[in-house]
Amino acid sequence: MSELLQFLFSGLTVGAVYALVALGFTIIYNASDVVNFAQGEFVMLGGMITWFAHAAGLPLPLAALLAIIATAALGVAINKLAIEPARGAPIVTLIIITIGASVFVQGAAQLVFDKQIHTFPAFSGDTPLRVMDATIQPQSLWVIGGALVVFVGLWLFFTRTLLGRAVLATSNNRLAAQLVGINTNFVMTLSFALSAGIGALAGVLATPITLTAYNVGIGFALKGFAGAMLGGMGNPKGALAGGFLIGLIEAMTAGYLSSTYKEAAAFVVILLVLFFMPQGLFGRKSTERV
Amino acid sequence: MKKTLTTTVPAALIALGLAGGASAEIKIGASVSATGPAAFLGDPEAKTLEMLVEEQNAKGGINGEQIALVLYDDGGDANKARTFATRLIEDDEVQAIIGGTTTGTSMSILAVAEDAEIPFISLAGAIDIVQPVKPYTFKTPHTDRMACQKIFEDMQKRGIGKIGMISGTDGFGASMQAQCKDVVGEYGIEIAADETYDPKDADMTAQLTKLRNTEGVQAVLNPGFGQGPSIVTRNYRQLGIDLPLYQSHGVASDGFIELAGKEAAEGVRLPGTALLVADLLAEDDPQKPVVSTYKTAFEGKFKQPVGTFGGYAHDGFALLVDAVTRAGSTEPGAIRDALEQTQGLAGTTGIYTMTPEDHLGLDLSAFRMLEVRDGTWSIVE
């Protein structure tokens, strides 16, 4: 019993990180149908900038805030400098541009920061919490809580606010959205800022657990992307569920089967879901409704 | 005809100029992974080589000749390493090559160097690089097999007969996992549970819970490098596992204690080099002066702690300087012969004595069994 609980905690910890990355994917996908493969770099920057600022003497909360704002600004810059000039290009081209941006950010990060692995202190100490006979790090609760808060925020944003609906409208039909007076350029800029900010937040929350280095972005992007696909691209609910599911599948496979099959198991499940439900678990209902 | 003239004349002029010049120079080539996935190993290696060449030149070079270092960054890519090795030999016309941060890049360079008969000193771990012995290839780091032997020796002394293993699935982890499983029988130790993790994983509590619940396990061994072993160490303490934890030489640096956290790292044992415990070495330890000099110079210049991997580059360069000095020649064949006759050269990793049958030249005494006590390394033998 305590074994199952321990595997559950392990899955939730990792799954929350994946979910946060998947939520970041959702926003840009909703605004532009583009899968932004630089999403993982935003996570890396969140961790690296916080570490750098903290090491330079800034208190941790301030360093984290700085990291989130700086990364959001970089997201806007990527949109303005790389995505917007290529407007009208096929979506595949835009996706390739995001991969290029990801390579660029990674290269810049190893020059600006360094090539070592870093971490900073956990927010509420390192003493594990004991539940029955299993343990969980307090920092895991921060990550899980972060994922839930971001999810609720996004869900409210997309369903309850005019701006959120404008994002969905832009995704559904850019021209029609412009005709009804939506500033689609602004919507895109906002999406990138928001998505980068959420990515950075994921980095800030996860670094005390996962550690950070200039090249951790790709790993986060892949797992987050898998989570978003599993849940249904573009749906916050799907991103949250998909992220957590992948984490849980990995932990359960490692715990009950064998750690050798851990990676494979997650991807087999994704393939099965996509095969039988091509839209993922939660489809794209929100866009269709607009 | 005309063409021959235009190429021959400048060539002759260059030849004359070189022959007439007062300072001929020794050209050393290097290809290391200063960027890419192995950057945290290759970066200190590149820095070390640049620093040592500068120092040696300031001291007057080797036998009065200045050293020119041609340094390439292969980014951990074996194909790039092969290209750079070819370029080093054909275009830069180097007399020896140091490098190959990873086993993959070392194997690429090795093939080119053997063909061109240029001495090559590898900085990577795998035993395949020098076994079977290749005439022009040498190597400075101990092998992962030796690390396993050192660890099992220590376990034997503590009366541990049954262990669990958790290994990274990267090249280093997988190779050491295989070597350990290969030699473990000789020590009468049984591997009761064998788990793995991806080097990018953020949580290993599931695998560790399995190890903990395996009947009779008396200790856990974790081959791996990078962030994985730090996370394993943290999760180990989170789960409150009370068994001895052994790490590999892949994490032998102060960074490991920092990343794992002082409390979590307490009691962790690993086979490390003298470099890590420079201050603790006995005054009459033959490695003491070498290790202290390198540590002081590197940390003073780059403001970052020395690590085992920069030490490998240090030893590669020291072997070469020693060989060229004894050979009294910069001819690649003479350097090779001198390298093979290296006797009792104290490096940061160990004391090298090469023979035609042994192009590594280290034995188990090069490893010191270290334990983390009060957030710092201590020697436990």
Automatic annotation (TrEMBL), chain A:
Membrane protein topology class: Multi-pass membrane protein
Transmembrane domains' residue ranges: 7-31, 51-79, 91-113, 140-158, 179-205, 211-231, 238-258, 264-282
UniProt-listed CDD domains: TM_PBP1_LivH_like
Principal subcellular localisation of the protein: membrane
Keyword tags: Amino-acid transport, Cell membrane, Membrane, Plasmid, Transmembrane, Transmembrane helix, Transport
InterPro entries: ABC_transp_permease, BCAA_transport_permease
Compartment(s) of residence: Cell membrane
Similarity comment: Belongs to the binding-protein-dependent transport system permease family. LivHM subfamily.
Name this polypeptide is given: Branched-chain amino acid ABC transporter permease
Lineage of the organism: Bacteria, Pseudomonadati, Pseudomonadota, Alphaproteobacteria, Rhodobacterales
UniProtKB/TrEMBL annotation, chain B:
Signal sequence, renumbered to the chain: 1-24
InterPro entries the record matches: BCAA_transport (IPR051010), Leu-bd (IPR028081), Leu_Ile_Val-bd (IPR000709), Peripla_BP_I (IPR028082)
CDD domains recorded: PBP1_ABC_RPA1789-like
Pfam families: Peripla_BP_6
Family: Belongs to the leucine-binding protein family.
Keywords: Amino-acid transport, Plasmid, Signal, Transport
Domain Leucine-binding protein: from-to ranges: 25-361
Cross-referenced PANTHER family: BLR7848 PROTEIN (PTHR30483:SF38), LEUCINE-SPECIFIC-BINDING PROTEIN (PTHR30483)
Entries under SUPFAM superfamilies matching the protein: Periplasmic binding protein-like I
Protein name per UniProt: ABC transporter substrate-binding protein
